[in-house]
Amino acid sequence: EVQVAESGGGSVQAGGSLRLSCTVSGLIFADADVGWVRQAPGGECDLVASFTSDGVIRYGDSVKGRVTISRDNAENTAYLQMTSLKPEDTAVYYCATDLFLLGLERSPGTCDTDFGYWGQGTQVTVSS
Length: 128
Prior knowledge:
- This protein is mostly beta strands.
- A hairpin with a 5-residue loop joins β4 and β5.
- The model has no long low-confidence stretch (mean pLDDT about 95).
């Protein structure tokens, strides 16, 4: 059974920083894409960052320059370092792995958990 577990969310003031962690078990992590997707209340599911198994990194337009994704294949863990946080970054942040990017391509704006494996999400709240 594949399990995806996020940690590191919380509440910060605008301009602050947070680091999210995602630990994956039950698959060969080094062979899997991994990424972070967020959804604000009533909003769409947006890609924050992704890191493919072959080393390609991609960031969502709204966070470019403010977030950094990394992965440690030996620890089966991915990280999302977020800086200069804004109130509009407030959302539930999901870690996803395996085929989640395919799901986002097929259904833009939708967190389609039928594709890949998803964590339960961690809340990030940024106050002004």
